[in-house]
Amino acid sequence: QVQLQESGPGLVKPSQTLSLTCTVSGGSITTMYYYWSWIRQPPGKGLEWMGAIAYDGSTYGSPSLKSHTSISRDTSKNQFSLQLSSVTPEDTAVYYCSVTGSSKHRGQGTQVTVSS
Questions:
Q1: Could you report the per-residue pLDDT of 20-79, keeping only the tens digit for each?
Q2: DSSP string, the chain
């Protein structure tokens, strides 16, 4: 079974770049037709899809976030990453990585707080 684990800083200052990494086990990020996503949930709000990277390295982003979101991968480490630039307190959320393929799985999430 595929397992995902998010990692990154719990606290980021406004205007900085947030970098998160998702480490995947039990499956390869290059498995055909699998899509690896980042999702977040701000306090008191619903889930927001941020973007994804596909098995072939193609990337997709939410139109509302695309200008300051970047998703990449390291196939040698079986990891994919999120970079969110120019963060504001409104980017405070629990961030999840997930996969959609023959089945769906999501990590436990990591809390990120944007504050000076």
A1: 999 999 999 999 999 999 999 999 999 999 999 999 999 999 888 888 999 999 999 999
A2: --EEEEE--SEE-TTS-EEEEEEEESS-TTSTT-EEEEEEE-TTS--EEEEEEETTS-EEE-TTTGGGEEEEEETTTTEEEEEE-S--GGG-EEEEEEEESSSEEE---EEEEE--
